[in-house]
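Sample A.
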Amino acid sequence: MNRTPNLLAWSLAAVAAACTLVPAAGAQEPTPIDPDRGVINVSGTGSVEVPPDRVRIQFGVDVEAPTAREASTRNAELMEGVLAALRRQGGEDLDLKTVGFNVSPVYRRPAPNQASELQGYRVSNQVSAVFSEMDAIGDLLDAGLDAGANRVSGPVFLADATEDAEAEAFRMAVESARAQAMTVASALGVELGPVLRVTTNLGGSSPQPVAMAMLDAEQARARTPIEAGQSVITAQVTLQYRIIQ
């Protein structure tokens, strides 16, 4: 008996049933909602200059000697002199604190194929001085150098009353971002809707510090000129607007 027609009929029925359960190729699935569609993202920056009212300078004394005890003793003598000179120059306005003390071995550079040889020890002591007499910064630097400081970093200028400047910087940043958003919306022929997302960032910068290291006595004789300049408060704002078509 020839069963080919029945097999063919069964196969066609199975294909027809499958077509009723599986979407046809090329059919469009519902597109999920993209939360980032229909928005404009803009960023704005605002900066305000603030006159500094304090300065921070670090004075250091580095001493090398054959033994750690000898280096430490000599370092302590020099640092005591530096602290006394800073206090005389800065008076009650000066805030001093130790920010670093280190003892480390010093090795002589070895010859080829030879081990390093211990040469001695280096003792480093650093103090931070915060000072508010902006016209006498150079005098404070010279006092520390004349007393024996051989490592100086700074000055770093600081400002306390920055709340108003920060608020103004944020206002400027928001206005800048809003103006950009309006320009983009106008070019696209759409209207701005509500703000959906806001991110902010606040930073600041002080005038470039003067850095000096291992100054000798001849360099220290000339009076050190220091100009405070202006600190800058910078605010950054990113706004996300909904687009109204």
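Sample B, a different protein:
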Amino acid sequence: MLRPAVLRTVLTALAVAGGAVVPLAAPALAEPTATPYSYVVGAPISTGTFPWAIAVDPSRSTAYVTSYSDGTVSVLDTARGRRTASISVGTHPTGVAVDPTTHRVYVATSGALKVLEDAGTGARVVASVRIATQPLAVAVDAAHHTAFVTSYAEHYPDPGTTAVVDTSTNRLVRTLAMGPDPDSVVVDPSDGTAYVADRTSRNVTVIVGGQVSQRYALSGARPSGIALGPGTHQLVVSEDGGTARPGGLVVLDLESGATRQLPGGRHPDGVAVDGATAYVPDDDGLGVVDLETGSYRRVADVGIGFGVAVDRRTHTAYVTNQDFRAVGGARQTSVSVVRQVDASPVPSSFTPLPTTRIFDATVGTRTLTLPVAGRGGVP
């Protein structure tokens, strides 16, 4: 297991203005205080073959998982911990996002963005929008009726793209040139700004009003995922360090230019944020990073963790497992369920999903071990 250590990096903001590149200052972030938590690992939920990405619709207690190999989207009932449907969507589905206001689901497949409508009685494909043939990630801006779909270059070093789609008409508005490997995208719901992280170019592109407005270059980092941070105008970017060094997280304050680099596993494949907690899946399972203190610890064996999403109402993370080895005693292609609970005291009303194991949490100088729970939950 990786021994956590706070690393430092310099992240230079590059403002695109008339073709000129203007460096911006990046002061260090202040070091805040800690909040202790423990993590309960629930029973895994079966999915299709080679699950890629996952999106959660919290108001309906539903999650949607793309399965790259069999061309399906699995619909999961997160309240009951089971798969309720499998929907064929086309070749090699990757990214997935949910519009929480319309409950429509947007799935990136080879050459098309598929739109699913879930009326509560069963999801079905209702539209298809032509996009590039090698899609990676999707994000939806519900307020401005826009979806952003990243696609990597078919022939390196050709540019990758981000497709801007009008979700009210299901029409492609424009296609923006990116670096060759735009691996992930996130939208700030407060203003509709999209942020695209490119693994190969090692930068974050800012899209405002459907146009590229700015780029931030990450020195030495290879972005693998991106999420909105707990503060206003703050991003959290997971980075794969490759063979030369460990991976981790970069926390960027977009207003001040302040940055911090934190530990986050060996080869993080994504990141999801709930409050001050960042969930980071990698080859060793699932780790969490306290964004206030910068501490990292591995909390769950989820096989080879890949996609991750979090339900902020229940403080539950869902992680796609791309490992065919035994996890929890059975060969599976699945989504793992990890719930965050207060370390002290443990709430007496907490009733998690059927639980297989509990992980210790170190709180100051003492270690708290929660009892293993059966189907009745944690007493």
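Observation for Sample B: The longest strand covers residues 37-46.
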